[in-house]
Amino acid sequence: MNFRFNTDTWFVFSILFISALALCILLYIVVPFYIRRKQVARIKSRQEKKILKYNQLERKNDELKLSILEDNIKKLKTDITDYLYQLTQSGSNSPNLIPFYSNFEKIYPNFSQSLKKICPEISSNEIKLCALIRLNLSSKEIGQLLNITQGSVNKARYRLRKKLGLTSDDDLFTTLLNIK
Fold first, then answer.
1. 157: CB partners within 8 A, 6+ apart
2. pTM exceeding the 0.70 threshold for the entire prediction
3. Residue 53 has what DSSP assignment?
4. What backbone torsions phi and psi does residue 146 show, to the nearest 5 degrees?
5. 3-state class of 118 per DSSP?
6. Over the stretch 152-179, which tens digit does the pLDDT of each residue have?
7. Other CB atoms closer than 10 Å to residue 96's CB: what's the count?
8. How many CB atoms lie within 10 A of CB 159?
9. Are 172 and 160 in contact (CB under 8 A)?
């Protein structure tokens, strides 16, 4: 048996074998890489969908809470106006305004803090006067509720205008309405 190797064929087979081996190694590395890449893309897509659904549910929940709060505020506003109307009609000398102020704070929770930010030296009685003015009550009605004369209410309004830095052209009611 005389078996001879041809160097040219041996070289070609060696190159083919090394190329095939390199191709297998490359496929062993590249294919899982692309598979993992697709899996990561699918996971990100699912996570984005979950986040989107969560945001939609949260938005619906916020809208529901907001509508409930608006309904409660409407009820409180009607309760406040009814309560103030009953107090003005009752004609008692010292009406109990504590429930009124607590309901007013529920409807406008940041009113007194915002007023104190604008005018830090404002007193609690002036804040109460501002609450009554914001509800668009007349000087006569405010005087009945606070058990003071109409002239005293007008003087208190004047002092309040000075503290808030309003000119005679500025309307106190609209200024207090704009305070949130």
1. 129, 133, 139, 172
2. no
3. H
4. -90, 0
5. helix
6. 999 999 998 888 888 878 888 888 888 8
7. 9
8. 13
9. yes
